[in-house]
Amino acid sequence: MTSLSRRAFVTAATASLLAGCGPRPHPAASAAPSAGPPTPGRAPAGAVRALARSVPVRLAIPAIGVDTPVLRLGLAADGSVQVPPVTDHDRAGWYRHSPTPGQVGPSVILGHVTVGAYGDGVFRHLDRLRRGDGIAVRLENGASAGFTVTTVRTVAKAHFPTEAVYGDVDRPELRLITCGGPRTGGGYPDNVIVFAALSGRTS
């Protein structure tokens, strides 16, 4: 975990739950103390070696037609995670207090499913991803981190799996998060969460 303690990161990130797709809730989550951050560069036997820290600049998901620049997101004034701005041709955003893609730990990228009057968002088809689909993240240093989808989950925001999404892991992983479920006047009731693991690197 970088920049923030794991407790602060989980608290802030959970509070968002990609609230930008609807009303933004006030932070209220907390997490159990961590046993300590994972050691950079360490991964299970046979796993792809972790990459050096480098900020993501572009995200490509061929299976659902995504090819987007990646913004950097921090914390909003209320302590929740920022979400990408609601604009035409919106972009995905990387939460800068999470590991960069390819580092050990869960790197978090958020995107909208809809963007108000502009219509569909960049992650409008995120729920169509399936196990084995590929994801490529271009990094600022020129390398590209390749990930393979392991799980796609749709969960009620009221029962967001905080530990599964933001908890420590001993290998480089990626989380893509957007809203899901039927849209109502109050927004969306669910979150779509894609879990992926590092599968390779190209320069």
* Fourth-level CATH superfamily: Sortase
Gap between N and C termini = 25 Å
Percent range of helical residues: under 10%
Number of strand elements = 8
Q: Look at the structure and give the mean pLDDT.
A: 81
CATH topology label: Sortase, Chain: A
Biggest beta sheet summary: 8 strands, mixed, barrel
CATH class: Mainly Beta
Q: How many H/I helices?
A: 2
- Compute the CA-based radius of gyration: 16 Å
Q: So, CATH architecture?
A: Beta Barrel
- Oligomeric state of the chains in view: single chain
Principal-axis shape: globular
Protein name: Peptidase C60 sortase A and B
Keywords: Hydrolase, Signal
Region (Disordered): 23-45
GO molecular function, one term: hydrolase activity
Layout of helices and strands, plus pairs?
Layout: H1 6-16, E1 56-61, E2 66-73, E3 92-95, E4 105-110, E5 134-139, E6 144-156, H2 162-166, E7 172-180, E8 190-202
Parallel strand pairs: 2-3, 4-7
Antiparallel strand pairs: 1-2, 1-5, 3-4, 5-6, 6-8, 7-8
Plain-language structure description:
- Pfam families: Sortase.
- This is Peptidase C60 sortase A and B.
- It comes from Streptomyces bungoensis.
- Residues 1-19 form the signal peptide.
- GO terms for molecular function: hydrolase activity.
- The chain is mainly beta and 203 residues long.
- The chain has one domain: Sortase, Chain: A.
- It contains 2 helices and 8 strands.
- It has helices at 6-16, 162-166, and strands spanning 56-61, 66-73, 92-95, 105-110, 134-139, 144-156, 172-180, 190-202.
- Strands 1-2-3-4-7-8-6-5 form an 8-stranded mixed beta barrel.
- The longest helix is centred in the first third of the chain and has 11 residues, at 6-16.
- The two termini are 25 Å apart.
- The model is unreliable at 1-20 and 22-45 (pLDDT under 50).
